[in-house]
Protein backbone atom coordinates (compact mmCIF):
# COMPACT_ATOMS: atom_id res chain seq x y z
CA UNK A 1 0.00 0.00 0.00
CA UNK A 2 1.44 3.38 -1.00
CA UNK A 3 2.30 6.03 1.55
CA UNK A 4 0.31 9.24 1.10
CA UNK A 5 2.29 12.46 1.28
CA UNK A 6 1.95 15.88 -0.36
CA UNK A 7 5.60 15.87 -1.42
CA UNK A 8 8.39 13.33 -1.67
CA UNK A 9 11.85 14.65 -2.53
CA UNK A 10 14.48 12.25 -3.85
CA UNK A 11 18.25 12.63 -3.82
CA UNK A 12 21.29 12.74 -1.57
CA UNK A 13 21.59 14.46 1.79
CA UNK A 14 25.06 14.98 3.26
CA UNK A 15 26.79 16.11 6.41
CA UNK A 16 28.44 19.50 6.10
CA UNK A 17 31.56 20.73 7.88
CA UNK A 18 31.92 24.48 7.37
CA UNK A 19 35.16 26.26 8.24
CA UNK A 20 34.36 28.35 11.29
CA UNK A 21 37.01 31.10 11.02
CA UNK A 22 39.51 32.07 8.35
CA UNK A 23 42.20 32.51 11.03
CA UNK A 24 41.49 29.03 12.46
CA UNK A 25 41.24 26.83 9.34
CA UNK A 26 41.14 23.54 11.26
CA UNK A 27 37.94 24.32 13.14
CA UNK A 28 34.68 23.39 11.40
CA UNK A 29 31.03 23.76 12.31
CA UNK A 30 28.82 20.77 11.54
CA UNK A 31 25.70 21.29 9.48
CA UNK A 32 23.57 19.57 6.86
CA UNK A 33 23.43 19.79 3.08
CA UNK A 34 21.69 18.29 0.11
CA UNK A 35 19.50 20.29 -2.25
CA UNK A 36 16.42 18.07 -2.27
CA UNK A 37 16.62 17.50 1.49
CA UNK A 38 16.66 21.27 1.97
CA UNK A 39 13.59 21.51 -0.26
CA UNK A 40 11.71 18.89 1.74
CA UNK A 41 12.52 20.67 5.02
CA UNK A 42 11.56 24.07 3.58
CA UNK A 43 8.21 22.67 2.46
CA UNK A 44 7.61 20.94 5.81
CA UNK A 45 8.19 24.20 7.67
CA UNK A 46 5.49 25.71 5.48
CA UNK A 47 2.96 23.05 6.44
CA UNK A 48 3.48 20.47 3.69
CA UNK A 49 3.32 16.76 4.51
CA UNK A 50 6.77 16.07 3.13
CA UNK A 51 8.89 12.95 2.91
CA UNK A 52 12.36 12.06 1.71
CA UNK A 53 13.58 9.16 -0.41
CA UNK A 54 17.25 8.22 -0.18
CA UNK A 55 19.78 5.86 1.40
CA UNK A 56 22.10 6.66 4.31
CA UNK A 57 24.91 4.70 5.87
CA UNK A 58 24.56 2.80 9.13
CA UNK A 59 26.85 5.34 10.77
CA UNK A 60 26.70 8.36 13.03
CA UNK A 61 26.22 10.72 10.09
CA UNK A 62 23.27 8.74 8.78
CA UNK A 63 21.69 8.81 12.23
CA UNK A 64 22.19 12.57 12.42
CA UNK A 65 20.31 13.00 9.15
CA UNK A 66 17.46 10.79 10.33
CA UNK A 67 17.24 12.83 13.54
CA UNK A 68 17.22 16.05 11.48
CA UNK A 69 14.31 14.89 9.32
CA UNK A 70 12.38 13.67 12.34
CA UNK A 71 12.85 17.04 14.06
CA UNK A 72 11.67 18.80 10.91
CA UNK A 73 8.59 16.58 10.46
CA UNK A 74 9.91 15.07 7.22
CA UNK A 75 8.67 11.49 6.78
CA UNK A 76 11.58 9.02 6.64
CA UNK A 77 9.77 5.86 5.56
CA UNK A 78 11.40 6.26 2.16
CA UNK A 79 14.89 6.35 3.71
CA UNK A 80 16.88 3.11 3.86
CA UNK A 81 19.81 2.62 6.24
CA UNK A 82 22.48 0.37 4.73
CA UNK A 83 25.61 -1.21 6.15
CA UNK A 84 27.65 -1.53 2.94
CA UNK A 85 28.18 2.18 2.22
CA UNK A 86 28.78 5.42 4.12
CA UNK A 87 26.84 8.66 4.35
CA UNK A 88 28.32 11.41 2.17
CA UNK A 89 30.27 14.30 3.69
CA UNK A 90 31.54 17.62 2.37
CA UNK A 91 33.76 20.42 3.70
CA UNK A 92 33.44 24.14 3.04
CA UNK A 93 36.54 26.33 3.32
CA UNK A 94 36.78 30.08 2.82
CA UNK A 95 39.53 32.00 1.10
CA UNK A 96 40.35 34.80 -1.28
CA UNK A 97 38.36 33.10 -4.06
CA UNK A 98 35.28 32.60 -1.88
CA UNK A 99 33.75 29.27 -0.86
CA UNK A 100 35.57 26.08 -1.78
CA UNK A 101 33.77 22.74 -1.51
CA UNK A 102 35.51 19.40 -0.96
CA UNK A 103 33.28 16.33 -1.31
CA UNK A 104 33.68 12.82 0.10
CA UNK A 105 30.72 11.20 -1.60
CA UNK A 106 32.06 8.66 -4.12
CA UNK A 107 30.33 5.35 -3.48
CA UNK A 108 28.07 6.90 -0.83
CA UNK A 109 24.93 5.13 0.30
CA UNK A 110 22.73 7.59 -1.59
CA UNK A 111 24.73 7.17 -4.80
CA UNK A 112 23.82 3.48 -4.72
CA UNK A 113 20.11 4.22 -5.04
CA UNK A 114 18.82 2.24 -8.02
CA UNK A 115 15.52 1.15 -9.58
CA UNK A 116 15.82 -2.13 -7.69
CA UNK A 117 15.97 -0.50 -4.24
CA UNK A 118 13.83 2.57 -4.94
CA UNK A 119 11.16 3.14 -2.23
CA UNK A 120 8.30 2.70 -4.68
CA UNK A 121 5.48 3.08 -2.16
CA UNK A 122 6.77 6.48 -1.07
CA UNK A 123 7.14 7.69 -4.65
CA UNK A 124 3.76 6.35 -5.76
CA UNK A 125 2.02 8.03 -2.83
CA UNK A 126 3.44 11.49 -3.49
CA UNK A 127 1.22 14.28 -4.73
CA UNK A 128 4.42 15.86 -6.03
CA UNK A 129 7.78 14.19 -6.64
CA UNK A 130 10.72 16.60 -6.49
CA UNK A 131 14.18 15.78 -7.78
CA UNK A 132 17.17 17.55 -9.24
CA UNK A 133 19.99 17.05 -11.67
CA UNK A 134 22.25 16.35 -8.68
CA UNK A 135 20.04 13.36 -7.90
CA UNK A 136 20.84 12.14 -11.43
CA UNK A 137 24.52 13.10 -11.48
CA UNK A 138 25.79 11.23 -8.41
CA UNK A 139 25.86 7.86 -10.24
CA UNK A 140 24.45 6.08 -13.26
CA UNK A 141 22.27 3.85 -11.08
CA UNK A 142 20.90 6.91 -9.26
CA UNK A 143 20.07 8.45 -12.64
CA UNK A 144 18.20 5.26 -13.52
CA UNK A 145 16.39 5.47 -10.17
CA UNK A 146 15.28 9.02 -11.00
CA UNK A 147 13.88 7.85 -14.34
CA UNK A 148 12.05 5.02 -12.58
CA UNK A 149 10.71 7.37 -9.92
CA UNK A 150 9.34 9.77 -12.54
CA UNK A 151 7.58 6.88 -14.29
CA UNK A 152 6.12 5.57 -11.00
CA UNK A 153 4.91 9.01 -9.90
CA UNK A 154 3.42 9.73 -13.30
CA UNK A 155 1.56 6.40 -13.41
CA UNK A 156 0.17 7.09 -9.93
CA UNK A 157 -1.13 10.50 -10.99
CA UNK A 158 1.52 12.60 -9.25
CA UNK A 159 3.17 15.74 -10.54
CA UNK A 160 6.92 16.15 -11.07
CA UNK A 161 9.03 19.11 -9.93
CA UNK A 162 12.60 19.42 -11.25
CA UNK A 163 15.54 21.67 -10.37
CA UNK A 164 18.46 21.70 -12.80
CA UNK A 165 21.02 22.29 -10.01
CA UNK A 166 24.08 21.88 -12.22
CA UNK A 167 27.27 20.58 -10.60
CA UNK A 168 30.01 20.12 -13.18
CA UNK A 169 32.28 18.41 -10.65
CA UNK A 170 29.86 15.49 -10.85
CA UNK A 171 29.50 15.11 -14.62
CA UNK A 172 30.59 16.76 -17.87
CA UNK A 173 28.43 19.49 -19.36
CA UNK A 174 27.60 17.49 -22.49
CA UNK A 175 26.17 14.60 -20.47
CA UNK A 176 24.37 16.97 -18.13
CA UNK A 177 22.73 18.73 -21.06
CA UNK A 178 21.55 15.47 -22.60
CA UNK A 179 20.09 14.17 -19.34
CA UNK A 180 18.46 17.44 -18.32
CA UNK A 181 16.97 17.95 -21.78
CA UNK A 182 15.44 14.46 -21.73
CA UNK A 183 14.04 15.09 -18.25
CA UNK A 184 12.37 18.39 -19.16
CA UNK A 185 9.83 16.61 -21.33
CA UNK A 186 8.86 14.26 -18.46
CA UNK A 187 8.12 16.80 -15.72
CA UNK A 188 5.40 19.32 -14.89
CA UNK A 189 7.67 22.27 -14.11
CA UNK A 190 11.35 23.13 -14.12
CA UNK A 191 13.10 25.43 -11.63
CA UNK A 192 16.49 26.39 -13.08
CA UNK A 193 18.66 29.17 -11.70
CA UNK A 194 20.08 31.77 -14.06
CA UNK A 195 23.63 30.59 -13.31
CA UNK A 196 22.76 26.98 -14.22
CA UNK A 197 20.77 27.95 -17.28
CA UNK A 198 23.51 30.21 -18.62
CA UNK A 199 25.83 27.20 -18.72
CA UNK A 200 23.19 24.79 -20.02
CA UNK A 201 22.09 26.99 -22.89
CA UNK A 202 25.21 29.12 -23.42
CA UNK A 203 22.96 32.14 -23.16
CA UNK A 204 22.50 34.60 -20.29
CA UNK A 205 19.31 36.32 -21.52
CA UNK A 206 16.40 35.28 -19.26
CA UNK A 207 13.71 35.41 -21.92
CA UNK A 208 15.81 33.45 -24.38
CA UNK A 209 16.53 30.85 -21.69
CA UNK A 210 12.82 30.45 -20.95
CA UNK A 211 12.14 29.99 -24.67
CA UNK A 212 14.81 27.26 -24.82
CA UNK A 213 13.36 25.53 -21.75
CA UNK A 214 9.99 25.36 -23.48
CA UNK A 215 11.70 24.13 -26.66
CA UNK A 216 13.23 21.31 -24.61
CA UNK A 217 9.71 20.29 -23.57
CA UNK A 218 9.17 22.02 -20.21
CA UNK A 219 5.47 22.95 -19.82
CA UNK A 220 6.04 25.45 -17.01
CA UNK A 221 9.31 27.32 -16.40
CA UNK A 222 10.30 29.26 -13.29
CA UNK A 223 13.71 30.81 -13.90
CA UNK A 224 15.25 31.88 -10.59
CA UNK A 225 17.10 35.20 -10.81
CA UNK A 226 18.50 35.44 -7.27
CA UNK A 227 17.76 38.78 -5.57
CA UNK A 228 16.06 39.96 -8.76
CA UNK A 229 13.23 37.46 -8.26
CA UNK A 230 12.20 35.10 -11.05
CA UNK A 231 10.74 34.86 -14.54
CA UNK A 232 7.68 32.63 -14.86
CA UNK A 233 6.17 31.25 -18.05
CA UNK A 234 3.43 28.70 -18.61
CA UNK A 235 3.75 28.91 -22.39
CA UNK A 236 0.87 31.38 -22.69
CA UNK A 237 1.62 34.02 -20.08
CA UNK A 238 5.04 35.27 -19.02
CA UNK A 239 5.86 37.58 -16.12
CA UNK A 240 8.85 38.71 -14.14
CA UNK A 241 8.14 38.48 -10.42
CA UNK A 242 10.18 40.93 -8.35
CA UNK A 243 12.41 39.78 -5.51
CA UNK A 244 12.46 41.12 -1.94
CA UNK A 245 15.26 43.22 -0.46
CA UNK A 246 16.52 41.86 2.84
CA UNK A 247 19.74 41.92 4.87
CA UNK A 248 21.40 38.98 3.19
CA UNK A 249 24.28 37.24 4.97
CA UNK A 250 24.40 33.80 3.30
CA UNK A 251 22.59 32.63 0.16
CA UNK A 252 23.30 28.95 0.77
CA UNK A 253 20.16 26.91 0.07
CA UNK A 254 18.03 29.87 -1.04
CA UNK A 255 17.18 28.20 -4.33
CA UNK A 256 16.19 25.01 -2.50
CA UNK A 257 13.97 27.07 -0.21
CA UNK A 258 12.36 28.66 -3.27
CA UNK A 259 11.57 25.19 -4.60
CA UNK A 260 9.96 24.08 -1.33
CA UNK A 261 7.90 27.25 -1.03
CA UNK A 262 6.79 27.09 -4.67
CA UNK A 263 5.68 23.49 -4.14
CA UNK A 264 3.88 24.42 -0.92
CA UNK A 265 1.80 27.11 -2.59
CA UNK A 266 1.16 25.00 -5.68
CA UNK A 267 -0.25 22.30 -3.40
CA UNK A 268 -2.41 24.98 -1.76
CA UNK A 269 -3.94 25.82 -5.14
CA UNK A 270 -2.05 28.98 -6.12
CA UNK A 271 -1.26 29.56 -9.77
CA UNK A 272 2.42 29.56 -10.75
CA UNK A 273 2.74 33.35 -10.67
CA UNK A 274 1.25 33.72 -7.19
CA UNK A 275 3.27 30.76 -5.91
CA UNK A 276 6.45 32.29 -7.33
CA UNK A 277 5.96 35.58 -5.46
CA UNK A 278 5.53 33.66 -2.20
CA UNK A 279 8.62 31.59 -3.04
CA UNK A 280 10.63 34.76 -3.72
CA UNK A 281 9.80 36.00 -0.23
CA UNK A 282 10.66 32.68 1.39
CA UNK A 283 13.97 32.46 -0.47
CA UNK A 284 14.86 36.01 0.53
CA UNK A 285 14.29 35.20 4.20
CA UNK A 286 16.46 32.08 3.83
CA UNK A 287 19.44 34.36 3.07
CA UNK A 288 19.18 36.27 6.37
CA UNK A 289 20.86 33.52 8.40
CA UNK A 290 23.76 31.13 7.99
CA UNK A 291 23.53 27.64 6.55
CA UNK A 292 21.05 25.85 4.35
CA UNK A 293 18.61 24.69 7.04
CA UNK A 294 18.57 26.97 10.08
CA UNK A 295 17.15 30.11 8.36
CA UNK A 296 14.39 28.36 6.40
CA UNK A 297 11.26 30.37 7.27
CA UNK A 298 7.79 29.45 8.45
CA UNK A 299 4.59 30.66 6.82
CA UNK A 300 4.01 33.55 9.24
CA UNK A 301 7.40 35.10 8.47
CA UNK A 302 6.86 34.75 4.73
CA UNK A 303 3.42 36.36 4.91
CA UNK A 304 4.79 39.23 6.99
CA UNK A 305 7.38 39.98 4.31
CA UNK A 306 4.75 39.69 1.57
CA UNK A 307 2.49 42.12 3.43
CA UNK A 308 5.30 44.64 3.78
CA UNK A 309 5.60 44.99 0.01
CA UNK A 310 2.29 45.43 -1.85
CA UNK A 311 1.82 43.08 -4.77
CA UNK A 312 1.85 44.82 -8.16
CA UNK A 313 -1.57 45.49 -9.61
Describe the structure.
With 313 residues, the protein is α/β, with parallel strands linked by helices. The chain has a single domain (5-308), classed as UDP-N-acetylmuramoyl-L-alanine:D-glutamate ligase. It contains eleven helices and 13 strands. A hairpin with a 5-residue loop joins strand 11 and strand 12 (230-233). Helix 1 packs across helix 9.
Short description:
This protein is of the alpha/beta class.
Rg over alpha carbons: 18 Å
Mean pLDDT: 94
CATH hierarchy: architecture: 3-Layer(aba) Sandwich
CATH class: Alpha Beta
Structure class: alpha/beta
Q: Which fold name fills CATH's third level, the topology?
A: UDP-N-acetylmuramoyl-L-alanine:D-glutamate ligase
Individual helix count: 11
Largest sheet: 9 strands, mixed
The SSE string, one letter per element, is EEEHEHEEEHEHHEHEHHEEEHHH
Strand content: 25-35%
Number of domains: 1
Output the keywords.
9-stranded mixed β-sheet; UDP-N-acetylmuramoyl-L-alanine:D-glutamate ligase; 313 residues; 38% helix; 4-stranded mixed β-sheet; 26% strand; alpha/beta; 11 helices
SSE order and pairing:
Elements: E1 5-10, E2 14-21, E3 24-33, H1 35-45, E4 50-57, H2 60-71, E5 74-82, E6 89-95, E7 98-104, H3 120-124, E8 126-132, H4 133-137, H5 140-155, E9 159-163, H6 173-184, E10 189-190, H7 194-201, H8 206-215, E11 220-224, E12 230-233, E13 238-241, H9 254-267, H10 272-286, H11 299-308
Parallel strand pairs: 1-4, 1-8, 2-6, 4-5, 8-9, 9-10, 10-11
Antiparallel strand pairs: 2-3, 6-7, 11-12, 12-13
Amino acid sequence: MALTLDLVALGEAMIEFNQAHADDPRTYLQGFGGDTSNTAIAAARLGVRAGYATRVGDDAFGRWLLELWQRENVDTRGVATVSDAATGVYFVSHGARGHEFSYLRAGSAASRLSPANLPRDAVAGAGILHLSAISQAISSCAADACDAAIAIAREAGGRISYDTNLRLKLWPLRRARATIRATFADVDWVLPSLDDATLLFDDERPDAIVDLCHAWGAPLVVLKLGPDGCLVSDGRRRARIAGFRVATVDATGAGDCFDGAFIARTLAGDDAFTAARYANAAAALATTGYGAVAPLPGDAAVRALLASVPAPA
